[in-house]
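How a chain folds remains the central question behind the approach discussed here. The record that follows shows the chain in one-letter code together with its fold in token form:
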Amino acid sequence: MNPTPGKVASLHLHPRKAGDPLVPVARIEAVEGKGFVGDRRYFGRLSRRTGKPSRRQVTLIEREVLAAHATRLGGPPIQPGEARANIETEGIELAAMVGRRLRVGSMLLEVTQHRDPCAKMDAVQPGLRALMEPPCQGVIAVVVESGEAKVGDPVTPVGCEGAPGSRGTGPAAAPGMSHAPTP
């Protein structure tokens, strides 16, 4: 884990229609147990299986990982938002944060799992989806404390081994949620 915090490189909201480009924003507001205000696809979404809040409230990916993928594929740089993540970061290894909490601006997120890349990644660059295997595909998180973030804000791991909310105690669920991932 990096001793210094990372930072928010870019922020994006999902449009209502699946597949449409993400909408870049300078500031984002998070609501505990729901996700990002204005995220037309995922805000307040419930699991079809359990009826409880979805575990897919927030997606994050590292700009460094995207740059490495583009280089490996020999393609142009992957532009902010093209990898369809709400938060793109710099300077923090997100894959190491599964089961941990992150303070992003004033919001608190619980990183619950690695993100499964979809076929849309190959539309960004052919072969991109195949490269997006752990730890190179980003993560999914839930909002455990409402707040906001803006581009340039710090992204800081919270807690240490054995402390509440750290890997030492396992992931904490957002209000009304179980630890089982939503299909």
